[in-house]
Amino acid sequence: GHILYTVLYCTPVQDPRYFSCCTVLVTMATISCRCGKVELQFPSKTPRVSTECCCNSCRQRVEYLADMGGPIVPKKPLLTSKWDNRVEIVSGKDLLFAYKLNPETMVLNIASSCCKTFLLGRHEEYDGNCVTTSSEFPVFHNAEGMVPVSRWFVNQWDKDRLEKCDRSLIGIWVNEDGDGSLTGEEGWEDVFQAQQACIQREIPPDAKGLTFDEIIDEIIGRDNVGIVSQKS
After folding, report:
1. Residue 26 has pLDDT above 70, yes or no
2. Per-residue pLDDT tens for 175-208?
3. Which of 55, 126, 174, 201 is buried most, with the most CB atoms less than 10 Å from its CB?
4. With the C-alpha atoms ordered 179, 166, 128, 137, is the resulting torsion angle positive or negative?
């Protein structure tokens, strides 16, 4: 999770023929699976945005791994963070596998085969120029600023348990009884627009790593991603 930059600067006499140099250590955020055999690196220390998610899909994709011996799923909304869609595979490429919950879903997931740790997910429509992590499962190193700014899909969460959560977060959800449009608690529109601006922002041109789709192609190929259930 470290990048070394060499910086040249003039001597005090400002003679351009003579330079001194120093090495600056820049630390990027990384995640590893629970047993440490897989490590991935992001091009920054902080995610673009973090939210809590109560949706069934986010829980089901990690419950699937838990059933195979992976980390236990906490009984609370999951903290998810959006990072630039550029990821360097530091170690354990051969231990990555991809899966999705059903044939129709637009969400693809990447986990470790060694200890069944959820690592990355991506929704083609929701994630813009980002990939998603869930903080309860991989081990984060050098990451900062993973503080939620909203809570998504509260309509899919148990109301009694929701009352025990931090109520300062504005809830946003899909109007499933109507036309599928978004709705939410008072002030949700401004929060949503701010989040969208973060998610859609262009990736810095010097960001290193592979896109999520490129990782999928290297692991197995998009058309060969494993399907957990045939139910759509």
Report:
1. no
2. 877 788 999 999 999 999 999 999 999 999 999 9
3. 55
4. negative
Q: Is 73 helix (H, G, I), strand (E, B) or coil?
A: coil
Residue 25: what residue type?
L
Of residues 45, 47, 31, 217, the one with CA closest to residue 131: 47
Residue 87 DSSP symbol: B
Q: Which of 213, 188, 91, 72 is nearest to 134 (CA)?
A: 72
Q: Which helix (H) or strand (E) holds 61?
A: helix 56-67
Model pTM score: 0.86
Q: Amino acid letter at 168?
A: S
Closest CA to 133 of 78, 89, 173, 60: 78
Structure tokens at 170: 């504005």
